[in-house]
Amino acid sequence: TRVHCYIEFSMAYNVSEGAAYAVLFTVLCLFALIAIASADFFGGCLGNFNNLFVLKQGDEEETVDEDGKKINNNRKTDFFLSARDSAPASAIALSYFASGMGAWVLYGPAEMGANKQIGWLGVIGYAFASSAPAFVVFAIGPIIKERCLDKSFNVTDFGRQRYGRVMQFTIAVFSIFYMFIYIVAEYTSISNIYGSFVTNPIYEFDPMSVSIAIGVITILYTSVGGLPASIITDKFQGLMVGALVILLLFAVSVHPENQLTVEQWGKASNWTTEGLMAGVTLFLAVLSAEMFNLGTWQRVWSAKSEADMKKGFIGGSILIFCLMMFFGIMAMVAYAQDPVAYDNWTKFSFLSFFDLLAPLAPAWHIITLILVTSLAASSVDTLQNALMSSFSSDLIRLQKHYGFNEEAPKWIARLLILILNIPAVWLGAKAYDVLSLFLVADLVCACAVLPVFFGLMTEDKGIIAAPTELGAFLGTVCGVFTVVVIGVVVEAEGGLFEYFWLENGAICALCGSKTMITFIITPISAGFFCLFFSKLDVLIRGEDSARKPMLAFAGDELPEVEKADELGDEGVVKDVNKDEEAAKEPQKETAVTGMEDAEA
Fold first, then answer.
1. What is the DSSP-derived secondary structure letter of residue 574?
2. Torsion of CA 199, 22, 180, 131, to 10 degrees
3. What is the pTM of this model?
4. Measured in Å, how far apart are the chain's first and last C-alpha atoms?
5. Which of 270, 372, 512, 577 is spaced 20 to 30 A from 225 at the CA atom?
């Protein structure tokens, strides 16, 4: 692989196998203890520090069972899966920051920075692209949460209640695919980093052992603490990452071998058209994919209030932008030191940050391993909880309907995580190109992002009909076929769906006009056909039929559409169930008043 080729040209990092494992398991065990504390297993042992480790729902009172024994609300199924209304702004900010910045950040921004044909615009574009999804969630998160009627968990529930089961399943498939790729990229990144630091003429290291350790321990502690554990560990991981990055910034900058002249820096400090195209591509790609990151959407429901959610996402976005800029600029420094080696591929741009680390003392290599272990654990545990939430509301509904044990949804969710992690660890050991993995997932998500979130439109706008479920589904399918058609037009090599790998022969995986145009056309095409088929659906099947779910299960409470002749000229997607509940309130008050009169 490219990582192993690099080792032949790099300096040995002199980290022993024992030291690497000591770092790995010490850091992971520390997070496991924090996760156990978040589930309030330590009771009053932590004293005044208990609030640092335990989330509490703002409006939830202490409850007791039939025997008068206190019930630990932190271990209830709903709170385990959602951490509903419990996290303050600071926790949301640190959680969004830590969970979004995995070990891959040592590779991604570096590939932009250590390339003279990309330069500043690529680095800034990647940083802005990574922080931009928070602003979108800031705007539409409260709206989506408000429109979800029952105790929802993420955007899959929005898909079910706005459209129906078909779109819920579609969103879940795209989300699970993206998050699975994300986990594979994390296992790949952390395995490669440990392998690079330890593998040398003295030590032979098995990188897969790192992926297995992170996968097993994060599964164990998320199984104990659920989403609250992820948010609390993210808080500490975010603080650790910030402190370690500041230390590395100081160490890398002051080392004599990393000093630059103005002339050297000028070779790396470039503003190019290629960089602009890469920045545009990254913005569209990352934004499309992150809309299907259920870990992000979970934070919308876990925030203590709307104000906490908004402040948290803005704070987290700023931290992400700064971290991405740090690694991008460090890559530019590495390129400036030895531009010839990077230009002729003797050194690889995506590994440029490690060139700056090589001359540092072994203690700094240990600090780097602590940093990347924290980054990987924060992302992996968030993704595992997000995967658990894919069908959480349905699992709870089935448990209540059939009278299963209250713990059943937790165990089903845990089983799902275990099943998905086994192939993820195996694929992580294959050392795929991390940026290419993300691009595949990004392009797949671009096929569905507009059809899904056009669902926020609930009223017809002139000749434009509010999306129907059939229209949204067909729009998504058209997005996939758009990529296939573009592949045929540009004469991409390979099979019918090979173009999803975006091998356009550019200077990097996401560079070039073909890749940028693909990310522009694909979502626009999907959105257009979503609205086009929605209009046809309403015209052919009629307003009533078109607005009904294509597939519904017994007991589903889904939004329905009132007839156009009752609303005027425009059809409106309206929550009939909520109206019915509101209509019952006066009846309840009347009944209570009658009872009081009878007693008098």
1. E
2. -100
3. 0.85
4. 85
5. 372
